[in-house]
Amino acid sequence: NKHLASLASCVTSLTVIRNVSGCDLVRLLTSLKCEQLSINNQSLGKEETRALVQAMESGVEKVDLGGEVTLDMEALTEYRDGVA
Questions:
Q1: Alpha carbons 74 and 59: distance in angstroms, whole number
Q2: What digits encode the pLDDT tens for the residues 20-49?
């Protein structure tokens, strides 16, 4: 898990997250340094959505959501409102 986050931090162009389970997605998302992120068939809870927002604030320029993606709307609303 720690190794996966370390590996993900080395990717600079595109990272794809698809059907991930048994992994600390918060650690993975907060370690991202890529320009583009694609999330497919994934459910993100409050902490994972906040980590996604943090990734967008720290450099991920484009996020593509495909398939069945669930995000925590409250965490997204905080980001939109500038609270996060």
A1: 22
A2: 988 899 999 999 999 999 999 999 999 999
Residues 37 and 76: their CA atoms lie apart, in Å, by 16
Query: Bridge-partner residues for 64, per DSSP?
Result: 38
Cα 37 to Cα 61: distance, rounded to the nearest angstrom: 8
Which strands make up the sheet holding 36-43, listed edge to edge? 14-18, 36-43, 62-70
Cβ pair 61, 35 in contact under 8 A: yes
Distance CA 18, CA 22 (A): 12
pTM recorded for the entire structure: 0.84
**CA-CA distance, 74 to 9, in Å (whole number)?**
27
